[in-house]
Specification:
It is a single chain. This protein is mainly beta. The protein folds into six domains: about 25-110, Immunoglobulins (Immunoglobulin-like, Sandwich), CATH 2.60.40.10; about 115-200, Immunoglobulins (Immunoglobulin-like); about 210-290, Immunoglobulin-like; about 295-380, Immunoglobulins (Immunoglobulin-like), CATH 2.60.40.10; about 385-480, Sandwich (Immunoglobulin-like); about 575-663, Immunoglobulin-like (Sandwich). The strands form 17 sheets. Strands 36, 38, 39, 41, 42 and 43 form a six-stranded mixed beta sheet that branches. Strands 4, 5, 7, 8 and 9 form a five-stranded antiparallel beta sheet that branches. Strands 21, 22, 24, 25 and 26 form a five-stranded antiparallel beta sheet that branches. The radius of gyration is 66 Å and the shape is rod-shaped. The chain starts with a helix and ends in a 9-residue tail after the last strand. The structure holds 2-acetamido-2-deoxy-beta-D-glucopyranose (5 copies). One 2-acetamido-2-deoxy-beta-D-glucopyranose binds near residues 382 and 407. One 2-acetamido-2-deoxy-beta-D-glucopyranose binds near residues 392, 569 and 650.
């Protein structure tokens, strides 16, 4: 069978119209709208509206977060939303016992109203002419686009709507308190106000350059230069020396071991962004060679016990006004004095040593080098006595006694003494004309016989009461043709055996008893016959009962008044001796020499004879030199091949015209 197309089309239209309108009429569903849209900021007002198109007489039921419904008006307004007002809202309508479907749920989001953060670049505190940028940042707002509103101080008008506001060259009038807030570009939301930030613009800054320690600085020390810009950060510092080009460095510049070439004029300035401060005042840094002290010692490096010695430390060219001085001795590590001049008021030998000083600045840190060491020598002053040209003189010869202080040539006054014997002790008797030799030389232009004697000297440091020791003894022996007394020796020769008896007699014209025999030995001692070992004085005769080699010396006669005459060499020797005349031989006479030995029956030895070290005759028992002349003067001795050799004796020859009393 065939169906007609018309009824099919009608059926189709009915089905469609039933589907479209029948559903709406059967199950109405409200639409829930929220103004403004989420997110909403706390404090704003929100309006929720439950719409049921063009139909009246309904009651509206609202529910939040699926909680139980409550009947309310079609429109709900929450005037100052809190975060807790956020949630999922639904609504439906009721009429009679009839309920509509629920609206689609709508989420209402409430955000804390965001608070902008303001940043200021480069700093809160800037200087006239710098470029300053204020920036307003708003986070967590859920708002995509803000318009920014900048306010200054209490002004009510916005001066900028940029997120970043830049002052390209600030002046002091830009100082002030700034804040911003944001408004949503295509909406109604706005942020809180930011906190206020304070911008301070001051006049062009000028750093202060300081140097530690202060000039002058010594080579090797360290110097710190500091470019200070009061409590302000973010700067780079530029340093220049002697107007050379700047170089960027830190705020503090330390030169750890300065050289003289580091000296100069320094300046600094600071830079931030493209902005430079003024230069600091220039500061001159002076570098000096570390000074080396000079030590002076007064009166001398070599002084004598009891003297006053002053050490002085002088430091020149340091540029330091006040020093403390440090004195060290030898290897000691502790300073013994801090005075510039240290005085030892009465030195002793223990003050001898090596001294040095150095200086430390009284109110600072500078120090000098160490001085060179100076050596102080303290000794007991010793007088040294010598004679020129010789101690054996002939009457009328000139002679000079010379007194010196060993190691010191100036500042002394000399005194002169003769050595006398009293009670076997040597005493010193000041010469009546001692002052003649105060300069150190006691000169006799023409020696007199009674100048024979033993002398000592002593020196005194001018004005200081420092005395030397007494000098060594120095004898002067003056021989002459006719002394007032003669020393007669028995046996009559200059050399004598040991352990024999020897007698010495002083004989004068009047056979007086007022003479005593004295002697002087190499030990420097002066003795009376009565104090000789085994010696005794009887009248003018001195007897040595048994000789010994220590009896060797110069013997002479002394008058009661202390004058000395007729010195004679006597040698006492064990073994071989030379027999030679005691007194000078007269020119033209024969000189007879023998070589004697004590322990043979015939005491004459056959021996060799020497003059001044040269053999003059060999193998002879008696050496006779006929018709002597001055050329025969000299030192003679004899030598036996087995028995040994004799001591040397000086034999002098006297001019023919002069007659010698007792030869
Ligand atoms: C002088 O002194 C030096 C050193 O102190 C010493 O060696 C010398 O022997 C002395 N001379 C005399 C003549 O005393
Ligand atoms: C030494 O002798 C001379 C005369 O020859 C005399 O004038 C002088 O006073 C004597 N000196 C002494 C110290 O006795
Ligand atoms: C005594 O001996 C010394 C050398 O020791 C000599 O120079 C001097 O002339 C001698 N004196 C006499 C009086 O022989
Ligand atoms: C010196 O000795 C010779 C013999 O050698 C002798 O003839 C002469 O008389 C002597 N002269 C004197 C002054 O003794
Ligand atoms: C002694 O001297 C003579 C010449 O002067 C010489 O001929 C002789 O050999 C010497 N005798 C001895 C023992 O040396």
């Amino acid at each position: 069978m065939e169906l007609s197309p018309l009824p099919l089309l009608l059926l189709f239209l009915v089905l469609i119209s039933n589907f479209q309108s029948g559903h709406t009429q059967d199950f109405p569903k409200p639409t829930l709208t929220v103004r403004p849209q989420s997110p909403v900021f706390t404090g704003d007002s929100v309006t929720l509206r439950c719409e049921l198109d063009k139909i009246t007489g309904w009651e509206f039921l609202w529910s939040k977060d699926s909680n139980t419904e409550s009947p309310e008006a079609e429109t709900i307004t929450i005037s100052r939303v809190k975060v807790s007002d956020g949630g999922e809202y639904r609504c439906r309508a009721r009429r009679g016992g009839y309920y509509t479907h629920y609206s689609k749920p709508v989420a209402v989001t409430i955000h804390e109203r965001p608070k902008p953060k303001v940043t200021i670049k480069p700093d809160h505190h800037v200087f006239r002419g710098e470029t300053v940028t204020l920036r307003c940042d708003i986070y967590n707002g859920g708002v995509t686009s803000w318009r920014y509103n900048w306010y200054k101080d209490s002004s009510t008008s916005v001066f900028s709507e940029r997120q970043e506001h830049t002052f390209s060259s600030v002046t002091e009038s830009d100082s002030g308190k700034y804040f911003c807030y944001g408004r949503e570009t295509g909406g109604s939301r706005w942020s809180q106000h930011s906190d206020e930030v304070t911008l301070t613009v001051s006049d062009f800054p000028k750093p202060t350059l300081t140097v530690r320690p202060q000039s002058p600085v010594f080579t090797g020390d360290s110097v710190t230069l500091r470019c200070e810009l009061d409590k302000i950060t973010g700067w780079e510092f530029l340093w220049s020396k002697d107007s050379n080009t700047d170089s960027p460095e830190a705020e503090t510049k330390t030169i750890s071991r300065v050289k003289v070439s580091d000296g100069g004029e320094y300046r600094c300035r600071a830079r931030r962004g493209g902005y430079n401060t003024y230069y600091s005042k220039p500061v001159a840094v002076t570098i000096h060679e570390r000074p080396k002290p000079k030590v002076t010692i007064k009166p001398d490096h070599h002084v004598f016990r009891g003297e006053t010695v002053t050490l002085r430390c002088d430091i020149y060219d340091g540029g330091v006004t006040s020093w403390r001085y440090n004195w060290y001795k030898d290897g000691s590590t502790s300073a013994f004095s801090e005075r510039q001049e240290h005085t030892f008021s009465s030195v002793t030998e223990s003050d001898s040593g090596k001294y040095f000083c150095y200086g430390t600045e009284t109110e600072g840190s500078r120090r000098s080098q160490h001085s060179d060491e100076v050596t102080l020598t303290v000794s007991v002053p010793r007088a040294v006595l010598s004679v020129s040209p010789q101690k054996w003189l002939t009457e009328g010869d000139p002679v000079t006694l010379i007194c010196e202080v060993n190691g010191s040539s100036t500042g002394w006054t000399f005194s002169w003494f003769t050595v006398t014997v009293s009670e076997s002790r040597n005493d010193y008797e000041l010469l009546s004309d001692s002052s003649r030799g105060a300069g150190g030389k006691y000169t006799v232009s023409s020696a007199d016989l009674n100048h024979t004697g033993v002398y000592v000297c002593r020196a005194e440091r001018d004005k200081t009461a420092v005395y030397t020791t007494y000098s060594n003894t120095q004898p002067l022996w003056v021989t002459g043709v006719s002394p007032p007394v003669s020393l007669i020796i028995s046996p009559s020769r200059t050399q004598h055996f040991t352990s024999v008896s020897l007698s010495l007699s002083c004989e004068d014209q009047s056979n007086s008893d007022g003479w005593t025999v004295r002697r002087y030995t190499d030990s420097g001692r002066l003795k009376d016959c009565s104090s000789f070992l085994r010696g005794s004085q009887t009248g003018s005769t001195c007897t040595i009962r048994s000789t010994s080699s220590s009896d060797t010396g110069v013997y002479w006669c002394q008058s009661e008044s202390g004058e000395n005459y007729h010195p004679v060499n006597i040698t006492v020797h064990f073994g071989v001796i030379l027999e030679s005349p005691v007194h000078p031989v007269t020119e033209g006479n024969n000189l007879t020499l023998r070589c004697l030995y004590k322990y043979t029956t015939v005491s004459n030895l056959r021996a060799d004879f020497y003059k001044d070290g040269s053999l003059i005759q060999n193998q002879t028992t008696e050496m006779i030199i006929p018709t002597v002349s001055k050329s025969h003067e000299g030192f003679y001795y004899c030598k036996h091949p087995d028995r040994g050799e004799s001591p040397k004796s000086w034999i002098s020859v006297r001019g023919e015209s002069k007659n010698y009393n007792h030869s």
